[in-house]
## 1
Amino acid sequence: MRVICKEDYDSASRAAADIIAAQILLKKDSRIGLATGSTPVGAYKRLVEKYEANELDFSDVITANLDEYRGLPKTHDQSYRYFMDTNLFDHVNIKKENTYVPDGMEQDAKKACSDYDRILEEKIGRFDLQLLGIGGDGHIGFNEPSDHFCVNTQCVKLEEQTIKDNARLFFSGDESAVPKEAYTMGIGFIMRSKRIILMATGKGKRDIVEKAFSGPVTPYVPASVLQLHPDVILVGDFDAIPETLRQG
Ligand code: PGA
């Protein structure tokens, strides 16, 4: 694993955006896995700036997102489709039909998951680059701690901590507004990516980053599986990345 540790959120976001930009410059039709949450917002801002400065062309890029709340329509301001549109897709020249997010409005969970797995197989095959955040409980995508690593897209019951963490983003700010279930890409497809960037910033992530990258590989800390991937870049700031993981 390579570690890029910057002094603050802004520089970490620039570093992550630079890696994504380099990927697109080297391969115009890159398949890129994208994440939502507060962490990648700064990186998406930088990518939009690069696009506006004519440094990047998204016209052949194909993306697929990790997850979506079950039951939220695309138009809901906390749906992950809405997040992607407003933070990135609406501001660059990506073709919306080349951007995939699980369908939160498909009530039949089995169908929602198999439909998404089919899209991943047919349209992506394997990500050139997958961007990840990390949940306070170690989740990647919405793959919550469990007794096994889930390979395929699944419908998950969100952990209390995840619901608590995400409530701040909902209009009323209370936990009852947060959906209790989500569809998430499985760990198998994430691990198939050629390269993975995991972004972690802020003091709140320090303990889980330590557990995930210095502790045992266990499905009870889903991100720990990344220790077994041959090309992971951990990008973060001094608050989130413990000294023991920093290099150079
Ligand atoms: P955050 O979420 O970026 O809002 O901290 C990360 C995650 O849950 O994966």
## 2
Amino acid sequence: MKRPDIVFSGMRPTGRLHLGNYWGALKNWVRLQDEFAGRCFFSVVDWHMLTTGYGDTSRLVENGREMVLDWLAAGVDPSKAVIFKQSDVPEHAELALMLAMVTPLSSVENNPTWKEQLQELAKTKAGMAAGGEATKYEENKAGANYELRTYGFLGYPVLQAADILLYHGTKVPVGQDQLPHLELSREIARKFNHAFGPVFAEPQPLLTPTPKVPGLDGRKMSKSYGNAVDIAESSQSLAAKVRGAYTDPTRKRATDPGHPEPCAENPPGCSVFALDKLYADADFVSRRRRECLAGALGCSACKNDLLGFMEPAFADFRGRREDYASRPGRVEEILAEGGSRAREVARKTMDEVRRAMRLR
Ligand code: TRP
Ligand code: SF4
């Protein structure tokens, strides 16, 4: 009997989310919760956060709450999807332990994310030792007692496989960067089935083409670059950020021809124009491209137009966010309810797993 598709995705509780998170992930979640109504699980994976962030857990709960508020602001709906916290469902740990039994050491050691992160950390440490500048974020990561070569971090993809398989997840909306992890989840599912019988379907990545969201300085939007726009940024702060955004350094006057798209003269391309593509309609975008190329308007006028397109979308998100945030205990209640729905499924799966493993 073929089971229905189940969508599973998770995010580490990093606090407030930005437009990159929205266009890259949340927008898909909101679509999927309708397409797979009642069969979507969206998890705050706080245990995954511990794999690299165990050194400072003081803001873990608060960051989880802020992140969930942003999910809700973006339109993730607790009546359509199960929203829950990984640590509320201890079966994640139990399944991770069982899956670890069949996970070859070579598979986790060759995990590109693990290798990259270790390299990055080594570089940061070397750079700091040489007196180089490090961001606050990098400093925290490279802190004196900071050890990344842990059993827990090596096991990151095993825990991720457990997340998905615990719900018999078949469709996993993730970004390109997560493909190696997904491949490992599939391998682990196969290994388990081979050892104990066919319990798990192999989860498939759900790659939806996501637009590139530039940060305000022309680089990729990222919290650690300090170039991000939050999902429910206030009106005032949104305006200030857009007015300060990177445009086209070759333009000195409003009549100078501009370079809206990435090109030799303006390699990153204009951030304002890239945002136009996300927030304005196609007609406006092609008109704006022509106007910019012809030097027919100044960048500050152009930025005001963009703000006009962004503001209503942000007002919407802000409204929903404030609505949820102003009801005391509402987020906690959503997580508790989601947690018990998730746990019900998780318990059933663990029964199957224990039986397949002849533990009972
Ligand atoms: N590793 C994912 C990330 O960093 C987060 C994650 C944990 C996840 N468990 C998951 C994503 C299960 C999808 C499915 O983005
Ligand atoms: Fe960018 Fe608009 Fe200025 Fe052109 S006119 S460079 S699109 S801000």
